[in-house]
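Onboarding guide, step 5: your first structure request.
Type a short instruction followed by the sequence, for example:

Predict the 3D structure of this protein.
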Amino acid sequence: MTNHIIQLLPPDAQIVITVGNNGDAIRPEYQRINPQCQVLTINENDRPDIPPNTVDCLAFDGIILPQLLANCAVWLKPEGQVLARISNLQYWRYIVNLLRGSSGEPTRNRVSADGFTLPEIKQIFAAAGLRIYEIQTLGSHSPLSPSPPTPLP
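The system replies with structure tokens like these:
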């Protein structure tokens, strides 16, 4: 994920907050592109004192707890953006693995980063006061159904 996120980070950001385990890997790579940027890494239990409307970009790596997203969203500048890597529970390989019994059944009351469906993702972002602009798929795709970025209305 690190390389993909770095390519999507705004090149002129002043403050980027990464949430998750890969934040420390993102910092040195991104600061080669934008050395003036302050990159902070937090985990889901951290409660940093960050003023509202000061952050250019939030980058979530798998940890996308709904309340955490809502809490972090207040830090974003009005033109700020959120980048998030979220497992898709409707991905066909995940469903095949479930049918084969090789993956545990997710619970409907989950609050961890084990993935969400597209309607759940939309609801989580809307509840945080955020609008989804684009969804990109990562990983391998079937050659019969390429998945370019999908702008959302």
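Each response can be followed by summary notes, for example: Strands lie at 15-19, 38-42, 55-61, 76-85, 134-135, 150-151.
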